[in-house]
């Protein structure tokens, strides 16, 4: 019900699995629905935001990625497989994860599920090094 309300007031964005600069952008498909609880466009000076993510598909490609800032994720529905440098782990509803901006990971869904998470990105400026590209694995990237 809250997701329908957020959509109605313009707080929903469907995120595709690749951006416009990707060579195969014409093959892009919906990857997640993002619902903005606080800011649709967070000011860089504000220390956090609160989002709801409804995941629709696995991370694309075979590799891992990091994020623009440290974050907290709380799984509300279903769950997902998260691959980190330490291995592959099932993250079920109720899981709370704290990650630095430099933590590389990937997320894979069980068939026929659409996990929902609260995603709280923290302050910008804490990532050391560039944002990773999909297709990079733990043999080439270290936390």
Give a written overview of the molecule:
- The chain has one helix spanning 2-8; strands spanning 12-16, 30-36, 51-55, 71-77, 79-84, 87-92, 96-99, 106-108, 116-121.
- The termini are far apart.
- By secondary structure, the protein is mostly beta strands.
- The model has no long low-confidence stretch (mean pLDDT 89).
- It contains one helix and nine strands.
- Strand 5 and strand 6 (87-92) form a beta hairpin.
- It has a single domain (2-121), classed as Jelly Rolls.
- The strands form two sheets. A six-stranded antiparallel sheet has the order 1-2-3-9-4-7. The chain has a three-stranded antiparallel sheet with strand order 6-5-8, with no helix packed on it.
- Helices cover 5% and strands 34% of the residues.
Helical percentage: under 10%
Output the CATH class name: Mainly Beta
- Shape call: globular
Q: Trace the largest sheet across and list its strands.
A: 1-2-3-9-4-7
User: Helix-strand pattern, N to C?
Assistant: HEEEEEEEEE
Key phrases:
six-stranded antiparallel β-sheet; 1 helix; three-stranded antiparallel β-sheet; globular; mainly beta; Jelly Rolls; 143 residues; single chain
